[in-house]
Amino acid sequence: MKALVYTAPGEVTYRDEADPVVGAGDALLRIEAVGICGSDMHAFHGHDPRRHPPLILGHELVGTVIDGAGIGRRVTANPLIVCGLCDPCVQGRNNLCRRRAMVGMTRPGAYAERMAIPAQCLIDLPAGMPARVAALTEPAATAVHAIALAERARWRPLNEARALILGGGAIGLLAALFLRHRGVDVTLAETNPLRRASAECHAGCATYDPRERGPEPDAYGFVIDAVGAKPTRQAALAAVQPGGVVLHIGLQDWASEIDMRKLTLDEITLIGTYTYTTADLRATVAALGRGAFGDLSWVEERALADGARAFADLDQGRTAAAKLVLVPG
User: Fold this and answer.
1) Which residues span the domain enclosing 28?
2) Looking at the predicted structure, is the pLDDT value of residue 102 above 90?
3) 69 pLDDT exceeds 90?
């Protein structure tokens, strides 16, 4: 089969690969579409010690079962492969399973014509959902999961607060779209002018370039850091109101100091948020189906064979699209 393989830092190669090994309990999928995730870009830059080349990346997928349980099912999937037995799993928080594996990290991913995955990970799609929409389930679920955490932590409803989102990539834009659908006043900070224009057009939110100015201090009821770098962590703490909530999603840098004095004296709730649960993924499929994220016309499709150019365009900021979806030939 053909696959796009991460072969070295800064390099992905479209080439022939062996067919997937289908283990006990696996389903074999024919991949229809797969998104390029920020974590795939992180691996591409050689910054993810968990992903070692050569490796087929890709976990934001939609496909059809061609071997295994339910042949013909059209599905997306939870790319986290969990034990189902530990405390987080039995509590319904399987994103926190310490025994978790992941497609596109510990086993071959979906940048390929076919992929094997445990059948327990499959999530059925509504009839007629376009592949480019279904492929957004995984990143959209990350936003849905984070916003649900914020909702539980806040004293008042979300739509009574102003929200600031730092980072206009897929997670940031999808969070903005979902919040706007729920009536929240959203401001988005993004360095790429093409992405700022896209957020203004498709999410109807105010934007600014964080290289030119900082956020309004003490102005936002909750802040989403979808970048996760030292400057964005500092900006998030500066921007949040007393009693507000900061959601930390991005992991561009893994450590830095934050303003612990403000965190303490203003009773700020700082929440780390990681991926999604299976319940979040199912809820997100339903939300996508009812149009809660808009028409998604900003999503750009590319051929899997042109994947190297797609990675280069994202790396160099040459596209306005916060999400590129690759389609096997």
Assistant:
1) 2-136+299-327
2) yes
3) no
